[in-house]
Each structure stands twice: as structure tokens, then as C-alpha cells.
Amino acid sequence: MSSLHQARLWALFTVLLSVFSLAAQAAVPASTYVGMGSSSDAKDNVTVSVNVPSDSTDSLFYHFSGPSAQTWAAFGIGHQMSGALIFVTYASEDGNNVTVSPRLGVGHVMPQHTSDVTVDVLSGSGIVNGSFVVNAKCTGCRSWSGGSVNVNSSSQNFIWALGPSGTLKSDDTSATISQHEGYNFFNLNLKDATGTGGVPIVSNSTTDDNLNDGPGFGGHVNPGVAFHAFLMVAAFLVVFPTGYLALRVFERVWLHWGVQSFALLMVCVGSAAGIGVSIRQSLTPSLKSGHQILGLVVLALALTTWTVGLIGHRIYKKTKTPAKIMKGHRVLGPSTILLGLVNCFVGFNFASNNHGVIVFGIAMLLMFIIVGSLTFFNRRRKMRKGAMNTPAAFNFREGGMESGNGGPPPPLYGEGGIPLQSYANTPPVYR
Ligand code: HEM
Ligand SMILES: *[C@@H]1O[C@H](CO)[C@@H](O)[C@H](O)[C@H]1NC(C)=O
Ligand SMILES: *[C@@H]1O[C@H](CO)[C@@H](O)[C@H](O)[C@H]1NC(C)=O
Ligand SMILES: *[C@@H]1O[C@H](CO)[C@@H](O)[C@H](O)[C@H]1NC(C)=O
Ligand SMILES: *[C@@H]1O[C@H](CO)[C@@H](O)[C@H](O)[C@H]1NC(C)=O
Ligand SMILES: *[C@@H]1O[C@H](CO)[C@@H](O)[C@H](O)[C@H]1NC(C)=O
């Protein structure tokens, strides 16, 4: 074989090899999420792409990037901090590469480094053009103390978070990080990401399953949860109490019926939203947490109260006498509202929203003051009206002692009445 021949064969071989390796790379299945991180600039995006190697039961490959203008960037497997396996990335001590620290979320405190999970940082990683870039293989990362990943899931829950801006340079995987400035939630289809193992290749032209989710930085609100909370808080804090006033102060049964029916509708839609997000986003999908159980009880109570009220009013219309079951309505109504308000507190607690607990507490106090004082003044007004019609009041009027508004001014003391002494100049002398 001539050397020319050999060279040609080598060239062919190399071409074939690179074609094969390209094909192999393309064959690495992955599921990718791109979300807006600290700004709409592409370098500040948060990208998470995961590959599930089918020939392994305890490893995953991932590509991650986030803005390096923040002290740290992280993503985690799980639907909230608690129970999540979190991969925190920050600059290495020399500032040229990245340190990746696998940590376990234990609540709203700094996640703790775990040595049960190993992360191999692979080529292509570093701090590139204003972004942390991580290509990695993790081992021991399919289940951990507190949780596991469901590689069969078409919507596995993930979270990401970004630290405050600045630089944190450390090679220590237990380095102290300070609380995030922003975070968000997303899902990845891991079923579709299963196959040949390898680091996922994310090109900016890929249109993957899960591109972007709108702003996440600062606006860390779960829209489904927010919709649920808005409807429930509005119903129990504003609409139900208004319906109460419609009856007790404005004394309009039809208005009471209309307002309470609207509030009930809000509660039904809000409950559906709550059940929906609980199941779809795996926020206690068994519906067995205190907030969820109490919520279902309140929903049942609200429906019962409404039905009893309707039946009671029908009976009253027919018989012209108050129905006995209206007593039930008068107990059920306020209890439902009270329990609903209690469950708003429990809900804010369930979502670990301390701010919400405080704001809601103040708003609830205001509501009680407003409803209470309107009811009180209305009652007093009625009692006064009632007082005018008592025998004593008639007697009073008969006696001709007209005083107050409309009557003649009282006689001036000193004008033929009791002589007045000027206390200002000469104090009275007691003998
Ligand atoms: C020093 C470390 C950390 C502290 C002190 C901390 C603290 C907190 C606090 C107080 C909240 C509630 C905030 C609110 O109600 O808006 C929260 C929520 C959250 N954090 Fe962190 N965090 C830390 C690190 C991380 C990391 C590394 C991640 C990585 C993904 C993360 C992801 C989240 C997410 C997704 C939420 C919302 C869901 C949930 O309630 O758990 N956090 N964190
Ligand atoms: C960062 O470290 C990884 C693993 O050691 C290496 O493959 C990569 O080339 C490094 N990146 C830079 C920019 O040095
Ligand atoms: C960094 O960004 C500049 C301009 O956006 C671009 O020209 C350059 O190729 C980028 N470098 C890398 C390593 O991506
Ligand atoms: C995922 O699916 C595979 C086969 O399709 C099965 O062997 C495995 O037990 C499943 N895992 C879970 C967590 O459902
Ligand atoms: C990816 O983005 C870079 C700049 O950020 C650009 O130069 C490059 O052409 C893009 N690649 C594709 C495939 O769109
Ligand atoms: C960065 O994120 C924004 C918002 O999600 C998205 O519109 C944009 O296409 C992303 N940029 C890249 C390069 O993926």
C-alpha cells in the first residue's frame, strides 16, 4: 500500500469518524429549558438541559448556564427548595472556571453541601462571555436524602435561583452563599431526554420543549397559585363580608343572594385552580395537607350554606314565616367565612409566604373593624329609632320638654334664672 493510499484512507477514516461522532452527539437526547434570568440579555438567561443516560441508573448529564454577574446561579430538581437536590455554581478561586456544589434544600435556609452526589465538570465549562457555563455529569443524583427524580416523568419539576449580584470566588463546595435575588419554577420532559448518554448540546437555534417562561427574576410568583390565592382572599375578605352587610345593614335579601352567589362562584373557581396546581405542579398532589383538607371542608360548607339559604328563603316566601333551617344558615354562614379566613392564613403558611401572612392579617383586622362598626352603628341607629317608640319616650314628649334640635334655645342662666357668679375673678367662699 502506498503512502498516498494510506493518507487517503486515513482521511476517509477521519471524515467517517467525525460524521459518526457528530451523529452520536446529535443522538444525545435532551430536554431543555431557557428562561429569562437577571435581564432579557441572552447572557443573563438561565438554561438547563438534561440528558438521562439509559445505560445508568444513578447518573445524569446536564448543561447549565446563568449570568456570571451574580454571585451564584443554581438549578434544582424538585418543586421547592425543601427536598430538592440543588446544583449551585459560582466562580472558582482563580476566577477562570466554575465550582459546582451539589446541595440539599432543607427549607428556606442555605442548602447544605452533600458528598453523596458527585459532579464531574466536563470540557466546555467555564465563565464565558458573562455567563457561568457548566457541562457536567452527576453521579448519585437520581435519588437523595429527601427526594428523587422521576426519569419517566414528562413534566419533572425543577427550580432555579440566582444569587445577588457580585462575585463569589471559591473552590470550596461548602462556601457560604447568600439568599437569592430571584427564582423560578419549570418542568422538563425527562422521558424524552432518555437514551444515549452525553452532555446535551444547546444551540441558540434549538426550539426545545420548554423555551422561556417569561420573567422570573424578582417576579417569583407562581401564576396558578397567585390566581387561586387572589380569588380566595378576595372572596373571604371582601365579597362574603359585603354580602353580609347587604343583608344586615342594607337589608336587601336579593343583593345578599347575588353577592354571596358571586362569592361562592369565586370559591368554586379558586378551589378548582388550587386543586389543579396541586396536582399539575405536584404541590402535595394527594391533597392531604392541612390547607388542602380545610379548603375542601370550607368549599363544602360554602355550598351547604348557600343551598340552605336558598331553601330557607323559598319557605319564607311561601309561608310568610321565617323557616327553621334559616337558623342553620345563620350559624353556617359566619362559620364558613371564619374558617375560610383561617384557611387563607394556613395557605400563606403552606406557601411559606410570611409577607402574605402579615399583610393578610392586617387586611383582615381592617375588614373586621369596618364590618363590625357598620353593623354596630346600624344596630344603634335602629335601637334609637326603637327607643323613640317606647312608652317612656312618649311620656317624655307629652311632658313638652322639647329639647335638642328644633326646640327653642334653653333659657340663658342669669336672665331671671339662677344668678351666676363669676368664678374667674372671685372664687366662691364656703362658710
Ligand atoms: C442562602 C441560601 C438561601 C436562602 C437563605 C433562601 C431563602 C429562601 C426564602 C426565605 C424563600 C421564600 C421567599 C418567598 O417567599 O418569596 C425561598 C424560596 C425559594 N428558594 Fe431559596 N434560599 C436560598 C437558596 C436557594 C437556592 C440555592 C435555590 C436554588 C434553586 C433556591 C430556590 C428557591 C425557590 C425555587 C423558592 C420558592 C419555592 C420554595 O418555597 O421553596 N433557594 N428561599
Ligand atoms: C474548567 O474545568 C473543566 C474541568 O476541569 C475543564 O474541562 C475546562 O476546560 C475548564 N474551563 C476553563 C475555561 O478553563
Ligand atoms: C462573546 O460574545 C461576543 C459578542 O457577543 C462574540 O463575538 C464572541 O464570539 C463570544 N465568545 C464566545 C466564546 O462565545
Ligand atoms: C420507569 O420506567 C422503567 C421502564 O419503562 C421502569 O423499569 C422503571 O421502574 C420506571 N421508574 C419509575 C420511577 O416509575
Ligand atoms: C448563536 O448566538 C451567537 C451570538 O450570541 C451567534 O453569533 C450565532 O450565530 C448563533 N448561532 C446560531 C446557530 O444561531
Ligand atoms: C433568553 O430568554 C429570553 C426570555 O425567555 C428568550 O426570549 C430568548 O430567546 C433567550 N435567548 C436565548 C439565546 O436563548
Automatic annotation (TrEMBL):
Coiled-coil region list: none
The organism's place on the tree of life at top rank: Eukaryota
Keywords tagged on the record: Electron transport, Membrane, Signal, Transmembrane, Transmembrane helix, Transport
PROSITE patterns from the UniProt entry: DOMON (PS50836)
UniProt signal peptide: 1-26
Subcellular location: Membrane
Coarse class of the protein's main subcellular location: membrane
Matching Pfam families: CDH-cyt, Cytochrom_B561
Membrane-spanning segments: 225-247, 254-279, 291-311, 331-351, 357-377
Residue ranges of domain DOMON in the record: 44-163
Descriptive protein name: DOMON domain-containing protein
Naturally occurring in which organism (per UniProt): Exophiala sideris
